[in-house]
Design brief:
- There is one protein chain.
- By secondary structure, the chain is α+β, with helices and mostly antiparallel strands.
- Among the domains are: 30 residues, no CATH class; 118 residues, no CATH class.
- It is 20% helix and 20% strand.
- It has five helices and nine strands.
- Strand 3 and strand 4 form a beta hairpin.
- The radius of gyration is 65 Å and the shape is globular.
- The relative contact order is 0.12.
């Protein structure tokens, strides 16, 4: 019991003791009794302190459109790195699968010539073939070598400088085209003909290309005449006409 409550209890006991009021003090006694009754009616409980209101953080509202975050998987395998693609390497053509053009030529005629392909043009054999009344005819033969192994493989067993094929071989024209190329002035398979430093363009120039065969030349005057392949190799003959 608190001190205040004990004091009020003692006062109430005094008020409760019966006694006879004296004359002239009835009013005072009555007032005192009222005060005692009021004091005794008070509660013994002391006022309680108000408890502080604990603020509660609002619970976030989930987004109805968002996907739930899956819980982490403990002990799961680590993701593997995507391997970089290895660039493919084009296979190199095997030797002999396709003919290799000789430097100075376009490689034209190689497929028709077949195997073995001749080595590069090394010289021209130029000679007077026919002596006509008006014009002489010159003939040119392209040669390769020295290459005894190649010459033997195509039938020239005793030579190391030879034509590309034997006379009459159906591959000869194609093999000659392969090593000689085409004439710069006519565009036909065969050599380009020169009289001195000039092209053989007709009788006025002293010489003319044969109408049927680029390896033949018609000459109308004397002088030096040359037959040249596209790789710059030439052969010549002096004509005393």
């Amino acid at each position: 019991m608190s001190r205040v409550t004990a004091a009020w209890a003692a006062l109430c006991e005094r008020c409760a003791v019966p006694h006879r009021p004296r004359a002239g003090a009835s009013r005072a006694v009555f007032a005192l009794a009222c005060v005692c009754l009021w004091a005794c009616s008070l509660s013994d409980k002391s006022p309680t302190q108000p408890q502080p209101v604990q603020s509660v953080a609002p619970t976030p509202t989930a987004d109805p459109g968002a996907s739930p975050t899956p819980p982490p998987v403990l002990g799961g395998p680590a993701p593997k790195a995507t391997p970089s693609p290895t660039p493919s390497t084009e296979p190199s053509p095997s030797p002999g699968s396709s003919p290799t053009p000789d430097p100075g030529t376009s490689g034209e005629g190689a497929a028709e010539c077949g195997s073995p392909l001749p080595p590069p043009l090394s010289r021209f054999n130029v000679k007077v073939h026919i002596k006509g009344a008006t014009a002489w005819t010159l003939d040119s033969t392209p040669l390769v070598g020295p290459d005894a192994k190649y010459c033997a493989s195509i039938g020239y067993g005793d030579r190391d400088v030879c034509p590309v094929r034997l006379e009459g071989n159906p591959q000869r024209s194609a093999c000659e085209l392969y090593i000689v190329g085409r004439a710069v002035d006519t565009g036909r398979p065969g050599p380009t003909w020169y009289h001195g430093s000039s092209l053989c363009s007709g009788e006025a120039a002293g010489c003319a290309n044969h109408s049927d065969n680029q390896y033949l030349l018609l000459v109308y005057t004397g002088g030096n005449f040359r037959a040249c392949g596209r790789n710059g190799v030439c052969g010549d003959v002096d004509v005393d006409k």
